[in-house]
Write a structure and sequence with these properties.
Elements (H helix, E strand, L loop, with lengths): L9 E7 L5 E5 L1 E2 L5 H12 L3 E8 L3 H32 L11 H32 L4 E5 L3 E5 L3 E4 H25 L1 H4 L3 H10 L1 H10 L7 E5 L2 E7 L2
Helix pairs in contact: 2-4, 2-6, 3-4, 3-6, 4-6, 4-7
Amino acid sequence: MQLMLQQTVYIIDEEQSNEGSKYMQPLTLIDRFHPHLREKQQAAIDEGKLRKREELALLDPQQLGPMVMLSMVLLVVGTIFFGILNIAVYLAQPHSMHGQIGGWGLILWLSINILSYIVVLFLHEGIHALAFVFWGGKPYFGAKLPLALYCGAKNQLFRRNQYLVVGLAPLVVISLAAVIFTLVNPVMASYTLFASIGNFSGAAGDVWSVMRLLRQPADVLVEDTETGYRVWEITV
């Protein structure tokens, strides 16, 4: 989809230029599947017919507390679910040999699990990016060290339900893949337990954002930011 080049509605970018002054950036509505509606609403956006309803910054102190609690809950739930699933599937399948984990075997198991967790951090953001691209967006990657990696779609507006898909895609896709992998080969899946559980727990920010966005009307537009989102509505 070819995006409009002329824009008249701008937002203030939080980053400062070399001279220390703030600069303005345009907002572009993304919707490859409804081009005519997109053009009509983009025209309204260009005319300044936008009102901000809500803004969420996940790294703000007020948000970090509840989000950390949610992450801990997801960590416990994920550990119980994937742990029990792995053990149950393993015991349900016939095995010619019954080995014990210890010594170098345990070190190898821990090492591969740690590596799998690191890999899944990038995979998580990659799935966010694919979801952005699916709707027609142009994602980019960044990091808020030491807290988080992120994938964003700067100065782009998405419909609420489209943004919900973007937010939940990594949690759903990776968790389903982990379940299938466990059902097929529980022994090999045990080497990716840290990744499965870590992705489940690490999706706390996505889940928190989705819970907040579900309170908004379905016709609002969501702008992705580096640490959260802004919700806009088109005014008549």
